[in-house]
């Protein structure tokens, strides 16, 4: 799995997952439990992972839909 994005924005990952799901690209969210443990202060970022073979396609889907992310 490769990191697609890392963010503290709690709305960005659900948006990205929805866009990726619509294109048949599986994704997996990491660091959810750590974020919850820190009290939802937004200090610890969450990561969205995709298969390495789908990384470029996932980036393209997000860019085409105006999602701003590093990578």
From TrEMBL:
Domain DUF2007: 1-65
Pfam families documented for this protein: DUF2007
Name this polypeptide is given: Putative signal transducing protein
């Amino acid at each position: 799995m490769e990191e697609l994005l890392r963010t503290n924005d709690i709305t960005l990952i659900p948006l990205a997952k929805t866009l990726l799901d619509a294109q048949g690209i599986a994704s997996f969210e990491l660091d959810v439990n750590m974020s919850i443990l820190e009290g939802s202060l937004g200090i610890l970022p969450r990561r969205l992972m995709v298969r390495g073979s789908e990384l470029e396609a996932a980036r393209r889907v997000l860019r085409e839909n105006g999602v701003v992310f590093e990578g």
